[in-house]
Amino acid sequence: MGRKKDNKLRNPFVYEGYVGPDYFCDRTEETEKVISNLKNGRNLTLVSPRKIGKTGLIKHAFHRIKETVPDAVCIYADIFHTHDQYELAQTLGKAIIQEQLFRSKNAINKVLRFFSMWRPTISFDPITGSPTVSVSMERSQAEHTIDNIFQYLKNCGKEVFFAIDEYQNIAEYREQGTEALLRSHIQFIHNTHFIFSGSRQHLMYEMFGSPQRPFYQSTALMSLQPLHKEIYYDFANRFFTNRGGSFSEQVFNDLYQLFDGYTWYMQSVLNRLYEQEKRVTDDGQVKEALHTILTDKVDQYATLMSFLSVNQQRLLKAIANEGKVAQPQSNSFIQRYGLTSASSVRKALTTLIDKDLVYHTTEGYIVYDRFFDLWLKRI
Predict the structure, then answer these.
(1) Residue 158 backbone phi and psi in degrees, to 5
(2) Beta-carbon neighbour count of residue 325 at 10 Å?
(3) By CB distance 3.0 to 4.6 Å, which of 41, 152, 164, 240 could disulfide with 245?
(4) How is residue 324 annotated by DSSP?
(5) Span 266-284, mean pLDDT?
(6) What digits encode the pLDDT tens for the residues 128-158?
């Protein structure tokens, strides 16, 4: 749930979750496009790399929808960590029940009765006090449970907006035919509007753009680009000036270029700067904030490296040093960094991509985690 407007945040640079429109930068055109598609009966495929802001956009669009349609049911489910239909059913079921926890007692009881076979358990977070839900079900009943989920959506009597994030994971499930199973339900549910968002662009475009796939041309397609630099600067500088400070536009531009405008990394650094500085006037202050962030992540990144082979480590460091690598199997690249051979690079690269450590952009291969990239450069 978003915070109320009169609950001012101590630090306005939010990098986890969505807390309301006051702390959400721009995306005016994209928000309107999302809402227009959904309200006019067009399911939407939203594609972008991770950490660029697609989850925030979805939740901002849901916030706007609820302003005009207070009775709308807006559900968000992240299936990034699911590997089969059983885990998918658990994640979707939990998201549905979780959304109902903030409604009337009658609404909660209705959804719990419908899904009594799930044995849902409601508890309270020991720190925040917010209600949370967990569900359990028989693994053998996964497909039947998925059928029930869509039956519930169809008959709930509400207009539903349902976002399934990291949707491309479904293509790699253990079971065959999950895409066709979902398509068989979704095409007949007219009161529920879906957003299928994903970060692995080649998989998403194949799932929704190939004539051989069940969801072929069944949705509107939308890609997400980084925030406009000038608009983002005005947004950031306003919070500093509101407390009698300032933020150098040149320093902001350098920070934007360092992370290609990727929102999560920008917000993380801005959050530290707002905590530590009243006026940001030079790049040294940014470097100090980055040093603090990377120091906090040393153990995490060192452990991650320990799980990689020597060839994978060397390739990862080489890509970080280059920034972007268009041809990682070229002789010049291999010789420059003392890599073994083109075949070993190809094998290591495949593993790093599968582990989401390396990402293929239109300009070449990059280290996916930009903080990890900076850490690798340092070592």
Answers:
(1) -125, 160
(2) 24
(3) 240
(4) -
(5) 97
(6) 677 777 777 888 889 998 999 999 999 988 9
What tens digit of pLDDT does each residue of 335-354 get? Answer: 999 999 999 999 999 999 99
First vs last Cα of the chain: how many Å apart? 41
**Which tokens in the block code for residue 338?**
């003392």
Residue 298 has which token pair?
């040393």
105 — pLDDT class (breaks 50, 70, 90): low
Q: Cα dist. 203→45, 166, 375 in Å? A: 12, 11, 29
376 pLDDT more than 70: yes
Cβ atoms of 312 and 324 within 8 Å: the answer is no
CB 219, CB 208: distance < 8 Å: yes
Say how far apart CA 43 and CA 216 lie, in whole Å.
12
Residue range 261-267: average pLDDT?
97
With CA atoms as reference, report the closest residue to 250 among 272, 280, 223: 280
Q: Residue 116 corresponds to which tokens in the numbers above?
A: 């009594």
Using the predicted structure, report yes or no on whether residue 2 has a pLDDT greater than 70: no
Distance CA 266, CA 256 (A): 7
DSSP-derived secondary structure letter, 127: T
Give 202-215 as a DSSP string. Answer: HHHHHHHH-TTSTT
- Report how far residue 248's alpha carbon sits from residue 234's, in angstroms, rounded to the nearest whole number: 11
Q: Are 145 and 124 in contact (CB under 8 A)?
A: no
Q: What is the DSSP string of 327-354?
A: -TTSHHHHHHTT---HHHHHHHHHHHHH
Alpha-carbon torsion 67, 97, 35, 268, what sign? positive
The DSSP line for 209-258 is: H-TTSTTTT-SEEEE--PPPHHHHHHHHHHHHHTTT-EE-HHHHHHHHHH
In the block, tokens 């970060």 appear at: 199
Helix axes 342-354, 310-322, angle to 10 degrees: 80
Q: Radius of gyration of the chain from Cα atoms? A: 23
pLDDT on residue 125: 72
Enter the tokens of residue 40: 């006019």
Angle between helix 283-296 and 298-306 (nearest 10): 60
